[in-house]
Design a protein that fits this description.
Aldehyde Dehydrogenase, Chain A, domain 1; 490 residues; 15 helices; alpha/beta; 39% helix; single chain; 22 strands; globular
Length: 490
């Protein structure tokens, strides 16, 4: 099986190929045509030529195209989910949810084709009219990660398309098969050639060429903070608009009055769902001391029962991590935590699942100190650090001290505590009596501090990065009227 790049409405072979493997069993999944720097020029040229026609396609008709994509995604949901699990490793129920998120976004953004809201406002002069409207930005470059290989790209692709932009997408080389299959859905829906282009390649060269190409006016990136900052620097030098969604070190706060069973259910899902490989995964559990013992006991018991294995098995709870490098990185963090004095409650080792695959045992640490490596660094794996505090105020202070600021949740039955937390927690997402994961596409998604640069994905907020505001004034007075002067005569 071979998957190819997609440029100007055609599937394109490369001079070289690279391979993608199933992380659950290390079996070869597919050969992938490798894009080169010259392909970036071809894709950008195709997108630039397709832009005028796509821009002038009425937005409601662009929306109807997105509805077609959504319909096809529904039809192909199980097929895509199965491929996603083989390509990335997450359990099949989560893979279905990954595809469902793209379906939701297709329909939501399709509806924006009937709105794309601007606004009118009163003006200072008589016989004069003013309004603000959105224009598409032009050719946009999208760079996305492997952990949500359909959902995360959909947060960028659909708002970019409905706004009238054309796209070059560079997905992670860890999940190229599902990326190509996703693009095939757009082709099957009848999206015009050049509007959506796909470039797949390992390494940084193709991504760097996309970032630095002078005809790419907007860049949207999801990935590591280090890479995101480098992209931001390059974009600033070229006066490009850039949206960054980067790291997280998310916390669940548990107060003494919390529902213990709900805490255990939500924490296991938030910490070990997607094998901890989510930007919103719960990596810290900040627990008030009065309930800490019972929380630890419940979590240890439940964690030991989690079943590891191939995500295609519906009885499996936790799949593999993405590759061997990730496996080694996670274990290195675990060893650092032990050296710094944290106590292992369960896990802390690689797991043997049939002798193949990249599996790490879900891990709980106790006695983690604020400011330690485990508490501060993004591990991006199934490792949860428990931190005890005396009060809500201390819990919020520990949470907000992180260099990241994506998602926080709090468990309490006290309405006053809940509203205090909602006010004082400084992250982009806040959940009450729920884990740190579970964002829905109709609301803005993103974070503060080291997590992002102020833009948001999903919801109507997603349109901001892909549109430019144009203010329009129509004077039908038949004479020169000078704003701020002629209507302020003394």
């Amino acid at each position: 099986m071979e998957f190819q790049n997609y440029i100007n409405g055609k599937w394109v072979k490369g001079r070289k190929t690279f391979q993608t493997i199933n992380p659950a069993n290390e079996a070869l999944l597919a050969d992938i045509a490798q894009a080169e720097i010259s392909d970036v020029d071809l894709a950008v040229d195709a997108a630039k030529k397709a832009f005028p026609s796509w821009r002038f396609t009425p937005a409601p008709l662009r929306g109807e195209m997105l509805y077609k994509v959504g319909d096809l995604l529904k039809q192909k949901k199980e097929e895509l989910a199965q491929l996603l699990t083989r390509d990335m490793g997450k359990v099949i129920a989560e893979a279905r949810g990954d595809v469902q998120e793209a379906i939701d976004m297709a329909y939501f953004m399709g509806g924006e084709g009937r709105r794309l809201l601007g606004y009118t406002a009163p003006v200072e002069m008589p016989n004069k009219f003013g309004m603000a409207v959105r224009d598409p930005a032009g050719v946009v470059g999208l760079i996305t990660p492997w952990n949500f290989p359909v959902a995360v790209p959909s947060w960028k692709i659909f708002p970019a398309l409905i706004a009238g932009n054309t796209i070059i997408w560079k997905p992670s080389p860890e999940t190229p098969a599902i990326s190509a299959a996703f693009v095939k859905v757009f082709e099957d829906a009848g999206l015009p050639p050049g509007v959506f282009n796909l470039l797949m390649a390992p390494g940084a060269d193709v991504g760097r060429a996309l970032v630095e190409h002078p005809e790419v006016r907007v860049l949207s990136f999801t990935g590591s903070t280090t890479t995101g900052r480098a992209i931001a620097g390059a974009a600033a030098r070229l006066n490009k608009k850039v949206s960054l969604e980067m790291g997280g070190k998310n916390a669940i706060i548990v107060m003494d009055d919390a529902n213990l069973e709900l805490v255990a259910d939500a924490t296991l899902w938030a910490a070990f769902g997607t094998t901890g490989q989510r930007c919103t995964a719960a990596s810290r559990l900040i627990v008030q001391k009065g309930i800490a013992g019972r929380v630890k006991e419940a979590l240890v018991e439940r964690t030991k029962k989690l079943k590891l294995g191939d995500g295609l098995d519906p009885n499996v709870d936790v799949g593999p991590v993405i590759n061997k490098v990730a496996l080694e990185r996670i274990h290195n963090y675990v060893q650092i935590g032990q050296k710094e004095g944290a106590r292992v409650l369960v896990g802390a080792s690689t797991a043997d699942v049939g002798g193949k695959g990249f599996f790490y045992a879900p891990t709980l640490f106790d006695g983690v100190k604020p400011g330690s490596t485990l508490e501060a660094e993004e591990i991006f794996g199934p490792v949860l650090s428990i931190i005890e505090v005396e009060s809500l105020e201390e819990a919020i202070e520990v949470n907000n001290r992180s260099k990241y600021g994506l998602s926080t949740s709090i468990f309490t039955q006290d309405i006053n505590r809940a509203f205090t937390a909602m006010r004082d927690i400084f992250t982009g997402l806040v959940y009450v009596n729920h884990g740190t994961t579970g964002a829905e596409i109709q609301f803005p998604f993103g974070g503060v501090r080291g997590t992002g640069n102020g833009h948001r994905e999903a919801g109507q907020a997603a349109l901001e990065v892909f549109t430019e505001w144009k203010s329009i004034y129509v004077d039908y007075s038949g004479k020169l009227q000078r704003a701020q002067i002629d209507n302020r005569k003394e």
